[in-house]
């Protein structure tokens, strides 16, 4: 609890200092506005994926952003309705309807709180850097791919608008950073489109914008075990996907801003945000990586103010200024997301010089993470498969570092072997074949002072070695165990079945 208090105090100090500085406050306000504009088409498209009314996604984005700004552990990170969550809940909505979706969102929020308090955030330490790099590169590719449909089968005017928007995004920051380039591009090109009545796809074409505020809603589902059996698998999947994506995004923002965030608080904060979202009839969500990059990298926002205002501006824009927002050309928002994609990609990681220096295993892990993520369009799947691949490669590498050496013959009836390396299931499986059972003398000493026993598989292997020698009437003495290895060996030896 002390760490949480310290982090909260630091956040409050950052917010207060931003409120006292007109320059910093302007950055936060404009960052929130740009994010809100970018959220609108995304939330609508994710609603369509989930099979719900666009208002469900838009209201979810509002409640998620506002709530996580207060309870989250990573300042400046944006949470809203996301594609990952939409993909998880789409079958449920299709088969059972909106009420079961809301019940699932509420249960997922509870699960996220429980999992976070149980320490799930600590598992982040087991995600290798190569998986993080793959995660970032896959994110950049997915952001780019999702923009392609907006550029196919559209009026030719879309392409000049896209080029103009990208020129503004590239060159305006070189002249001034007083106003975020994405905001300038949106305002200028929307005005041009309206004045000249260009017939191009706009935000209004993505779906109907709401005209009223969100209201409290309790799902109309029977409170039975049958209902729980329906929603529980979806809720657990949603909770895990949301936590993984949010914690990975938080770590990414930590690296970009060179600051530390409270991952446990971020985890249960996501749960609270989903509960609030469910109460207001939203589809739930998690951290939005693309919009977070807009807020942190493009706009330069650093505090909870920008996250809170992103939600507030979103509600104002879609409810109060819906007719104006509907006129924003999709070409401009596509240009913004393409630039976010370019800025997100870790170009150094795919530089031929870097690839030549990098161990092959690290490159394989990165490529597997990218391939699975892009193929499934689910960042969580990519990270999970990437971590498993890294574990397998690491296990193979460590296993090959283990050796058995004949080091001494104190007398004609004694032979001493030294075993060196880390002994676990991968390395100990071949250990049994490294001894000369038939040719060795009466007494065999196995010195493990240069090794460490990590698991039951190794103890079982040592038992099998002893058994093989005993079958030939020979004695085996195991020496040199460190304290942890000795304790594990004493506790497990002879208790796992002969030869196993």
Quaternary structure annotation: single chain
Strand-pairing-aware structural class: alpha/beta
What is the succession of H and E elements?
HHHEHHHHHHHEHHHHHHHEEHEHEH
Topology, number of strands: 6
Radius of gyration: 29 Å
N- to C-terminal distance: 45 Å
Question: Could you please describe the fold and organization of this structure?
Answer:
This is SulP family inorganic anion transporter. The chain is 64% helix and 7% strand. With 500 residues, the protein is an alpha/beta fold. Among the domains are: 2-125 and 207-327, no CATH class; 403-492, STAS domain (Transcription Regulator spoIIAA), CATH 3.30.750. Strands 3-4-5-6 form a four-stranded mixed β-sheet. It has a two-stranded antiparallel ribbon with strand order 1-2. The two termini are 45 Å apart. Mean pLDDT is 88; it is low at 1-9.
Concise summary:
The chain has 500 residues and is an alpha/beta fold. The chain has helices spanning 2-20, 22-50, 54-71, 83-96, 98-117, 129-145, 158-175, 181-195, 225-257, 263-279, 289-298, 304-320, 322-325, 330-344, 352-357, 360-376, 379-399, 425-428, 456-470, 483-492; strands spanning 79-80, 286-287, 403-408, 414-423, 443-453, 475-479. The chain crosses the membrane at residues 29-50, 56-72, 100-118, 130-148, 154-172, 179-198, 223-244, 303-321, 327-347.
Describe the secondary-structure layout.
Elements: H1 2-20, H2 22-50, H3 54-71, E1 79-80, H4 83-96, H5 98-117, H6 129-145, H7 158-175, H8 181-195, H9 225-257, H10 263-279, E2 286-287, H11 289-298, H12 304-320, H13 322-325, H14 330-344, H15 352-357, H16 360-376, H17 379-399, E3 403-408, E4 414-423, H18 425-428, E5 443-453, H19 456-470, E6 475-479, H20 483-492
Parallel strand pairs: 4-5, 5-6
Antiparallel strand pairs: 1-2, 3-4
Helix pairs in contact: 1-2, 2-3, 2-4, 2-11, 2-12, 3-10, 3-12, 4-5, 4-9, 5-9, 5-10, 6-14, 6-16, 6-17, 7-8, 7-14, 9-10, 9-11, 9-17, 11-14, 16-17
């Amino acid at each position: 609890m002390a760490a949480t208090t310290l982090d909260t105090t630091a956040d409050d100090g950052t917010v207060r200092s931003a409120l006292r500085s007109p320059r910093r406050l302007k950055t936060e306000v404009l960052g929130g506005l740009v994010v809100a504009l970018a959220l609108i088409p995304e939330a609508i498209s994710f609603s369509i994926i989930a099979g719900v009314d666009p208002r469900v996604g838009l209201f979810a984005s509002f409640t998620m952003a506002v709530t996580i700004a207060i309870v989250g552990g990573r300042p400046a990170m944006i949470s809203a309705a996301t594609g990952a969550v939409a993909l998880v809940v789409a079958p449920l909505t299709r088969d059972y309807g909106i009420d079961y979706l809301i019940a699932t969102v509420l249960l997922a929020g509870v699960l996220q709180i429980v999992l976070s308090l149980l320490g799930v955030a600590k598992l982040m330490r087991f995600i290798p850097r190569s998986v993080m790099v793959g995660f970032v590169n896959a994110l950049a590719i997915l952001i780019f791919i999702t923009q392609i449909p907006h550029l196919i089968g559209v009026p030719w005017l879309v392409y000049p608008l896209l080029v103009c928007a990208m020129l503004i995004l590239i060159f305006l920051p070189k002249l001034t950073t007083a106003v975020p380039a994405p905001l300038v591009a949106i305002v200028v090109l929307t005005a041009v489109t309206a004045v000249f009545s260009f017939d191009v796809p706009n935000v209004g074409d993505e779906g109907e914008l709401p005209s009223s505020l969100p209201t409290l809603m309790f799902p109309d589902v029977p409170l039975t075990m049958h209902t729980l059996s329906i929603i529980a698998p979806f809720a657990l999947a949603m909770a895990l996907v949301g936590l993984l994506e949010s914690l990975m995004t938080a770590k990414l923002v930590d690296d970009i801003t060179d600051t530390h965030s409270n991952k446990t608080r971020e985890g249960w904060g996501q749960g609270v945000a989903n509960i609030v979202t469910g109460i207001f009839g939203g589809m739930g969500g998690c951290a939005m990586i693309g919009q977070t990059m807009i807020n942190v990298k493009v706009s330069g926002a650093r505090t909870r103010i920008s996250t809170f205002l992103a939600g507030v501006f979103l509600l104002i824009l879609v409810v109060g200024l819906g007719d104006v927002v509907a006129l924003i050309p999709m070409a401009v928002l596509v240009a913004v997301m393409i630039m976010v994609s370019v800025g997100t990609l870790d170009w150094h990681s795919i530089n031929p010089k870097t690839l030549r220096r990098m161990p092959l295993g690290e490159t394989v892990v990165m490529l597997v993470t990218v391939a699975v993520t892009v193929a499934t369009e689910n960042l969580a799947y990519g990270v999970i498969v990437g971590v498993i691949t890294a574990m397998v490669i690491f296990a193979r590498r460590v296993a090959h570092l283990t050796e058995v050496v004949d080091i001494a013959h104190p007398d004609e009836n004694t032979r001493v072997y030294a075993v060196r390396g880390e002994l676990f299931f991968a390395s100990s499986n071949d250990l049994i074949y490294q001894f000369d059972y038939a040719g060795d003398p009466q007494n065999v000493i196995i010195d493990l002072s240069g090794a460490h026993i990590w698991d039951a598989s190794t103890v079982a292997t040592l038992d099998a070695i002893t058994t093989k020698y005993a079958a030939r009437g020979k004695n085996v003495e195991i020496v040199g165990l460190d304290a942890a290895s000795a304790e594990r060996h004493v506790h497990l030896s002879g208790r796992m079945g002969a030869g196993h």
